[in-house]
Amino acid sequence: MQTNNRLFDDFARMASGAMNAAAGVREEFEVLVRRQLERLLERMDLVSREEFDAVKAMAAKARSEQEALAKRVVALEATAQSSGKPAAKGAGGANPARAKAKKAGKAKAKAATGPGGAASKD
Question: Are 30 and 3 in the same domain?
């Protein structure tokens, strides 16, 4: 009977060693596959998750700002049409520097004509 136990003990040790060796081979295989995938991803020049999330947030912010500006343009056009003035054409709208210069030119002309409307004789 003792020989059977010894035979089974040896067989159990051998099976245990084989399982440990198989686990080691499995771990090495996983490491090799992981390295190959990392090399492949580096060659593909993919972005990291953090970079993707940052760009996604920037795009969402830009989209919401664009929608807000579109609503503002619609509201400004509605007020311009209700006051009887034609809306400014073009994507840029009115040029603030040009409007300021035009206003300054009108003020100079008014000052040159004097309060009565006639040109002053200075």
Answer: yes
Q: Output b/e per residue, 37-50; b: 16+ Cβ within 10 A.
A: eeeeeeeeeeeeee
Count of Cβ atoms closer than 10 Å to residue 32 Cβ: 10
Q: Which of 24, 52, 28, 48 is nearest to 38 (CA)?
A: 48
Whole-angstrom distance, CA of residue 77 vs CA of residue 43? 51
Q: Give yes or no: residues 66 and 42 share one domain.
A: no
Least confident span in 59-63, 82-86, 89-93, 98-102 = 89-93
CA distance 55 to 62: 10
Could you report the per-residue pLDDT of 67-84, keeping only the tens digit for each? Answer: 999 999 999 999 999 987
Which range marks the domain in which residue 56 is found? 47-88
Helix, strand, coil distribution of the chain in percent, nearest 5:
80, 0, 20
Decide: 86 and 80 in contact? Cβ < 8 Å: yes
Tokens of 97: 């520097």
